User: Which sequence fits this backbone?
């Protein structure tokens, strides 16, 4: 059975909006350069600042959106790889309080290392993480420690 690589990405709304707002000074600067005074310092500054903001926020939105990946080598979380043979078990923790509900994936390691808690709520399609983890855990013989409710 061939396991697919499963990727979970962050919500990119904030960076995308910032990139769009960066286009506003770029547009004003470009408009001023074309229609009014091509040698005006402020129109050039608006164009340069708008271009920098838009490019930086757009690049950040594109390059930092992948947070969690389940693949054949292990769990890739924030550019760190946790191989399947280092995991002893995993659990899902669900917390409910007055501010809302929060879901976590908790990874327990063989070496006695502190467990890794991954908050799932800010990822796209975070509801499917338990099902995808179950598939990978079955293949790589990682024990499911259960669902913890707080």
Assistant:
């Amino acid at each position: 059975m061939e396991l697919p690589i499963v990727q979970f990405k962050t919500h990119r709304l904030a960076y995308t909006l910032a990139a769009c707002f960066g286009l506003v000074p770029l547009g004003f600067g470009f408009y001023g350069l074309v229609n009014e005074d091509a040698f005006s310092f402020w129109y050039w500054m608006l164009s340069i600042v708008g271009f920098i903001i838009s490019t930086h926020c757009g690049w950040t939105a594109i390059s930092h959106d992948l947070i969690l990946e389940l693949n054949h080598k292990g769990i890739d979380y924030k550019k760190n790889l946790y191989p399947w043979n280092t995991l002893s078990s995993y659990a899902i923790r669900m917390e409910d309080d007055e501010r809302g509900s929060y879901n976590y994936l908790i990874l327990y390691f063989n070496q006695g290392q502190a467990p890794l808690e991954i908050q799932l709520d800010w990822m796209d399609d975070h509801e499917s993480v338990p099902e995808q983890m179950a598939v990978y855990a079955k293949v790589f013989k990682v024990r499911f420690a259960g669902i913890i409710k707080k």
